[in-house]
Design a protein that fits this description.
Arc Repressor Mutant, subunit A; Rossmann fold; 2 domains; 14 helices; 10 strands; 13% strand
Length: 329
């Protein structure tokens, strides 16, 4: 009977604590026990499954999908957002809102933020961020050349400058094209002290916010002029490329696609991204599914923010093959 009496005592303490809302010190006084004993028996209540924890996910959240993404792709976190339509516009808007909240709640003081400025989804994120009053970042660093078609360039410049203002940081613009005309032209551009100064900060970035692109460039990137020709894109696809992060291409298994085109990009490399402490990828939409799978397989991403339709597609595609080895240390 001593066992049953012990369980009865544990159940009573659990009831007082979890149901009646009493503090441990109050329970100890009421039952003439030490507070250490009350604490020990509350832990025992969990071990004996007298108390069980149940999490009821709020409507519009997708805990099971997030858990499946974390486990399948070895992510630190996955955020799956509600979206009423499986179309690019609504998907980007909802991801941008979720990314803004993530940024506001997880940003650390003196962070050096790297941001790919030719992403429409990241632009949606910046549009939704509220000014941070307490936590201030140090720099917002543009990680892909921001000059191009003047009609579109203003978006890239404003994105970086606005994010810096909202986070209390100093903007560091990459005042060059994203794609140089040749390797030799790139070397000339890298000789510019302002360009070199910004790129030297790549190794100090603590939080990178990146978009994930398909081989076919987004409308914003295409309008900027920072793209490769149709023939060059066809060669990339023939080499196995399925997507890019900051115009650095990879295949379905996350392996880097190295071509002479890589030598013309003025921006952060996948190797540099892999050394960043926290890399957050924002992407969704049917046309980007294969690109997102490839990006996840690189092992570079720590956090993925996507929509419910894309999350289901990612898991369906990934279930057909084992996950490749990660490359991130």
């Amino acid at each position: 009977m001593s066992r049953l009496n012990e369980l009865r005592m544990i159940a009573r303490i659990a009831q007082m604590y979890h149901v009646e809302g009493r503090r441990q010190s109050e329970i100890a006084r009421h039952l003439h026990l030490s507070q250490a004993t009350v604490s020990r028996l509350l832990k025992k209540a969990l071990e004996e499954e007298i108390v069980r924890t149940t999490i009821i996910a709020p409507s519009g959240t997708y805990g099971e999908l997030e858990t499946a993404l974390r486990e399948r792709f070895r992510l630190a976190e996955a955020i799956v957002v509600e979206c009423s339509e499986d179309r690019d516009g609504p998907v980007m808007a909802r991801i941008g809102e979720a990314a803004a909240h993530f940024m506001e709640t997880t940003l650390q003081s003196d962070e050096i933020i790297g941001v790919s400025s030719w992403s429409e989804t990241i632009l949606r994120m910046v549009d939704n961020i509220h000014p941070l009053k307490t936590c201030k970042a140090k720099y917002v660093v543009q990680t892909l050349g921001g000059m191009g078609n003047p009609a579109v360039q203003i978006h890239a410049t404003q994105l970086t400058a606005k994010l810096a203002k909202l986070t209390g940081a100093e903007p560091r613009l990459l005042t060059s094209q994203g794609v140089a005309q040749s390797r030799e032209a790139k070397l000339v551009i890298l000789g510019d002290p302002y360009v070199r100064e910004t790129m030297e900060l790549f190794g100090r970035i603590s939080l990178a916010i990146i978009g994930i692109g398909a081989v076919e460039p987004s409308s914003m990137l295409a309008r900027s002029g920072n793209v490769f020709s149709a023939n060059e894109l066809a060669d990339l696809a023939e080499a196995g490329a399925v997507g890019d992060m900051s115009l650095r291409f990879f295949d379905h298994n996350g392996r880097t696609i190295r071509t002479p085109l890589d030598e013309r990009v003025i921006g952060i490399s996948l190797e540099e991204l892999s050394r960043v402490e926290r890399v957050v990828g924002l992407a969704g939409g049917e046309s980007k599914t294969e690109a997102i799978v490839g990006a996840l397989h690189t092992g570079i991403l720590d956090v993925l923010i996507t929509d419910k339709f894309t999350a289901k597609r990612l898991l369906a595609v990934a279930s057909a093959a084992p996950a490749p080895e990660e490359i991130k240390p």
